[in-house]
């Protein structure tokens, strides 16, 4: 039987033998099924499915009917406000906790459900935490090989595979003999991913793996990690607070709110076709303006705006800052006064006030930094691109 993957948070580093700190002698042929995932040889990931998951802590119901399907080989980002239950769901998927109701399946294996709770080490799910949690007394090689059976650990084939896994996450082979304290935070996270991939898990769970890194390291580490996941076709759930990260690296994004998945969609679907204004505001800066909806066009204080979907009646329209173009005064649909200009390096965010017969409307615009007007300046405003109108039931829009 194929052994399960290592789940580092559940392992006891002290159980490891110091002799494994450097590559040991070859002990025989690799045990079938223990070779790591390497490009071109890895099996496709498995569908990960959570259905009708419920979890309460005492009187507090955290998850209340969560349905989430992560397609095989897909990276789904799980986002939601702090305390919405993202880590709780990840821990249930990993098997660290037990759902009160519902089922979890990986491929066709039921790992949690009524009368069934497969332990973490037998789920074939890898878990990478914010800190990576490498074993400090083991070398990079020792960490990566940790999940393999003792006998197979230093076979010629597995020693080669350790090197290939390191290469897969973008680190040179000479790092194999380094200890975790000799690595940067980003390098440690890459090794943690290599370790999680080594037992060829059916899925990987990443719990804010980049959040402790500075922006530059974060970008390069994110790139290396997502490239490795794509190369191995590993089904992945990524919990992140960073909406740009979620939209840029995930193929699907699931938004958790009020104990359930409110919307699960492609990044563009979530960004451009949010189910309500709260989802819209969660995934990006947003202005909501009043509008008269006339089929494919909405009349707004900023002029006529094409709509994604035909709608009629009185409503509101979501506008992203990048849809609001700044022109010379008089050259746009209307003029506005700049309230604040927030310089952000490459671009800036403008808070604008548009005077209308029915009162002032405040709008946010994004503008290239070299065109950034100053606070108090008058500018022209024009809206481009299709917009989404609020659903009639979305009465919370402000
Ligand atoms: N073991 C526990 N016992 C009691 N309550 C818990 C436990 N674990 C989590 N909670 C509560 O469940 C809720 C969801 O917590 P969880 O950590 O899953 O949220 P999260 O979305 O991951 O938050 P964050 O983004 O801040 O990490 C919180 O209110 C938290 O206090």
Spell the H/E element sequence: EEEHEEEEHHHHEHEHEEHHEEEEEEEE
Radius of gyration of CA atoms, rounded to a whole number: 25 Å
What is the top-level CATH class of the largest domain? Alpha Beta
Tally the structural domains.
2
Helix vs. strand class: alpha+beta
Head-to-tail CA distance between termini: 57 Å
Distinctive features:
binds adenosine-5'-triphosphate, 2 domains, 21% helix, ATP hydrolysis activity, alpha+beta, six-stranded mixed sheet, 9 helices, 35% strand, ATP binding, globular, disordered N terminus
Describe the structure in your own words.
The protein has 398 residues and is an alpha+beta fold. The chain has 2 domains: 8-272, Rossmann fold; 285-389, no CATH class. The protein has helices at 86-94, 140-144, 150-153, 156-168, 185-197, 215-232, 243-249, 267-272, 277-283; strands at residues 48-57, 60-70, 75-79, 101-106, 109-113, 116-117, 125-128, 203-207, 235-239, 252-257, 260-265, 287-300, 303-319, 324-327, 334-343, 347-356, 359-368, 378-383, 388-389. It has a 6-stranded mixed β-sheet with strand order 7-8-9-3-10-11, sandwiched between helices. A 5-stranded antiparallel β-sheet has the order 2-1-4-5-6, covered by helices on one side. A 5-stranded antiparallel β-sheet has the order 14-18-15-16-17, with no helix packed on it. β10 (252-257) and β11 form a beta hairpin. The relative contact order is 0.13. It binds adenosine-5'-triphosphate. Adenosine-5'-triphosphate binds at residues 57, 62, 80, 82-88.
């Amino acid at each position: 039987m194929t052994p399960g993957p290592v789940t580092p948070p559940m392992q006891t580093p002290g159980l490891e033998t110091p002799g494994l700190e450097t590559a040991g002698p070859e002990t025989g042929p690799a045990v079938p099924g223990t070779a790591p995932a390497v490009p071109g040889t890895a099996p496709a990931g498995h569908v990960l499915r959570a259905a009708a998951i419920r979890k309460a802590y005492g009187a507090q119901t955290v998850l209340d009917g969560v349905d989430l399907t992560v397609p095989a080989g897909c990276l789904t980002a799980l986002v939601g406000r702090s305390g919405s239950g993202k880590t709780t769901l990840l821990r249930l998927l990993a098997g660290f906790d037990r759902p009160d109701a519902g089922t979890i399946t990986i491929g066709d294996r039921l790992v949690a459900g009524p009368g069934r709770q497969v332990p973490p080490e037998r789920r074939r799910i890898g878990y990478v935490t914010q800190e990576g949690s490498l074993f400090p007394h083991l070398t990079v090689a020792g960490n990566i090989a940790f999940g393999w059976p003792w006998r197979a650990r230093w076979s010629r084939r597995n020693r080669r595979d350790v090197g290939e896994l390191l290469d897969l996450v973008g680190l040179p082979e000479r790092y194999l003999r380094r200890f975790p304290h000799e690595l940067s935070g980003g390098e440690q996270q890459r090794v943690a991913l290599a370790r999680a991939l080594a037992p060829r898990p059916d899925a990987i769970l990443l719990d804010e793996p980049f959040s402790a890194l500075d922006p530059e390291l974060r970008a390069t580490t994110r790139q290396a990690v997502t490239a490795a996941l794509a190369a191995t076709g590993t089904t992945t759930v990524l919990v992140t607070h960073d909406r740009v990260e979620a939209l840029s690296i995930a193929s699907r994004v699931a938004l958790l709110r009020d104990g359930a998945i409110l919307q699960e969609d492609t990044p563009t679907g979530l960004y451009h076709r949010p189910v309500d204004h709260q989802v819209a505001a969660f995934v990006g800066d947003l202005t909501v303006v009043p509008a008269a909806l006339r089929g494919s066009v909405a009349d707004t204080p900023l002029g006529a705006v094409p709509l994604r979907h035909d709608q009629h009646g009185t409503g509101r329209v979501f506008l992203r800052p990048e849809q609001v173009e700044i022109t010379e005064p008089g050259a746009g649909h209307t003029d506005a006064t700049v309230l604040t200009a927030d310089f952000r390096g490459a671009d800036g965010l403008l808070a604008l006030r548009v005077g209308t017969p029915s009162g002032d409307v405040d709008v946010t615009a994004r503008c290239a930094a070299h065109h950034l007007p100053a606070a108090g300046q008058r500018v022209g405003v024009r809206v481009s691109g299709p917009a989404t109108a609020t659903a009639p039931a979305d009465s919370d829009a402000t």
